[in-house]
């Protein structure tokens, strides 16, 4: 397995009162290079895209998104600093200029596109359902969830999709995917909607208690996962797109996915 680059980690839960529609000043590429550091926001509870591990005695964020972010930093010749926060606050942090960009398994929608720039996409997915293991036989199609209590992560495409597809369901939104899984295990929710690749990771971690509903998925009307930056920062956007294009066209993105999927599975088997 490839050596994982060390990433500077700042663990901080930051919920700011600044409106996500407020666009403040951003740092130029010259500013970033002069400072020698670029800051990236993420929500590190989304394996294999981003999660935390102990590495060389330090709590470190690893995953697909930090790897892509490191490539952006490398192109600029600067240090990467990662700020771990709640998913729903990420757009605000970018628009307020508190970070230079973000990589957090984020998809585009009309509201976000008004205030941030999205890079080219590096992953396209679907939404899947997770339920208690002893109830999985009760579900065979999406309509079976119509009047259930459904858990989703705040600010995600799944939150919007649940509200759109299931107007008669009770939708419970939480900040962390791990909290959603615990709510499912304790009976607070009947089901959880997640990105299909992440479902596999959480099911593997909790195989005795939860299960994915096989063959039941929802199409996501979006352009896939992408990094985001300030609406006015076209220079940084160009660098981000260059990174995405290189890893996609070379096939390296598949290697990155494989690396972190295997790493997460290996860590779970050792627990």
> What is the number of strand segments?
14
Radius of gyration from the alpha-carbon trace, in angstroms: 18 Å
- Across the major sheet, the strand order is 1-6-2-7-14-8
* Percentage of β-strand residues: 25-35%
Structural class estimated from helices and strands: alpha/beta
> Which sheet architecture does the biggest sheet show?
6 strands, mixed
Oligomer: single chain
Spans of 5+ residues with little confidence (pLDDT < 50)?
Answer: 1-23
Give helix % range. Answer: 25-40%
> Element order, helices and strands?
EHEEEEHEHEHEEEHEHEHEEHH
Q: How far from one another are the termini? A: 19 Å
Q: Which outline best applies?
A: globular
Number of helices: 9
Instruction: Write down the overall mean pLDDT.
Output: 88
Short structural description:
The protein has 271 residues and is α/β, with parallel strands linked by helices.
Description:
The protein starts with 7 loop residues before the first strand and ends with a helix. With 271 residues, the protein is α/β, with parallel strands linked by helices. The N terminus is likely disordered. The longest helix is centred in the last third of the chain and has 19 residues. The protein is 35% helix and 28% strand. The chain is globular and about 60 Å long.
